[in-house]
Amino acid sequence: MDDSKRLEGRLVVIKRILIADDHAIMREGLRHILVEQYPQVKFGEASDGAGVYQQLAETEWDILILDLNMPGCQGLEVLKKAKHLRPHLRIFVLSMYPEDQFALQALRAGALGYMTKEMASTQLIEAIKTIADGKKYISPDFGTKMLEWAIEPQSESNLPMLSQREEQVLRGLGSGKSLKELGVEMDLSPKTIGTYLLRILFKLKLKTNADLVRYAIQNHLIT
After folding, report:
1. What is the pLDDT of residues 109-141, one digit of tens each?
2. CA 161 – CA 92 distance, rounded (Å)
3. Which site among 102, 115, 148, 177 is 20 to 30 Å from 142 CA-CA?
4. Are residues 9 and 115 in the same domain?
5. Count of domains observed in the chain
6. Does the CA dihedral 164-108-18-137 come out positive or negative?
7. Residues 108 and 10 both lie in one domain
8. Is residue 146 part of a domain?
9. Phi/psi at 163 (5° precision)
């Protein structure tokens, strides 16, 4: 059976997919794309975080397709709580935000995949098939970026896994400077500084900005 997948030694059949997005047209579009691949699947909808929690409390969903930008909630918090409520739930984030801004945070919070809404429907089908099999999904382009981050020329300081730019950002953010302040100092946009921040978190296996500050203090990077 094509939709039968193994998870932790059990045979699991994909029967229910919950779509969480605040735009009704987007929910309908996703349902239309997926129903051709999964004609026997029951689809549900939620337009905000409260709706997601209610659906998870009432029904055993197999896959949650989650938008991070819904009104009245922070998407990553919804993701974490959804994972807490249903530990075996496969969560796939479909967001307007570029992967280099939120993908790593979403994956570390428990998502199995991340994709931007501008991707083609064929990629969505591929992504859902991948996470249905219990595997992680990121786009090939973002996978290439992660590889580039890992092999970028390294710093010659006591942080050999970081580039010189990344170490400068780490020291600046660790000392309490904001993205904007550090951007002015380095003549870079706050968005670029944010990208460096995500690369640092990825390379050092950190999860939050607080972890970064703690790391900077413990490693005597703040003067």
Report:
1. 899 999 988 877 888 999 998 998 888 998 877
2. 30
3. 177
4. yes
5. 2
6. positive
7. yes
8. no
9. -75, 170
